[in-house]
Amino acid sequence: MNISSRKCNGKTQSMEKEQSKKNESSNTCLSMLSEGCIAEIFAFTSPPDVCRFSLVSTYLHSATNSDSVWAKFLQSDYLSIIAKSQTPIPDFRSLKDEYVYLADN
């Protein structure tokens, strides 16, 4: 390994540490918000956006599974629509699961 590649590796490691600190800092700011607050913010986005947010951190992932988020994406009368369905609709653990099922069928 020559001197220039050692310097490059040192810079890369330094930059990675700096980025890691920035990520920790931004996660700290997010964790200052309650999960309910974050879920309320997510409700103003779209289902694909919520799914993307779930990949960012475990803290956001938890908020993206909130029924209050997915309730905003379902029609207000979705229960009456389901009741009229010719096909039996299975019971779901969450509104997210129900949303995905209804979107696919």
UniProtKB/TrEMBL annotation:
<feature type="compositionally biased region" description="Basic and acidic residues">
    <location>
        <begin position="14"/>
        <end position="24"/>
    </location>
</feature>
<feature type="region of interest" description="Disordered">
    <location>
        <begin position="1"/>
        <end position="26"/>
    </location>
</feature>
<dbReference type="InterPro" id="IPR001810">
    <property type="entry name" value="F-box_dom"/>
</dbReference>
<dbReference type="InterPro" id="IPR036047">
    <property type="entry name" value="F-box-like_dom_sf"/>
</dbReference>
<feature type="compositionally biased region" description="Polar residues">
    <location>
        <begin position="1"/>
        <end position="13"/>
    </location>
</feature>
<dbReference type="Pfam" id="PF00646">
    <property type="entry name" value="F-box"/>
</dbReference>
<feature type="domain" description="F-box">
    <location>
        <begin position="30"/>
        <end position="71"/>
    </location>
</feature>
<protein>
    <recommendedName>
        <fullName>F-box domain-containing protein</fullName>
    </recommendedName>
</protein>
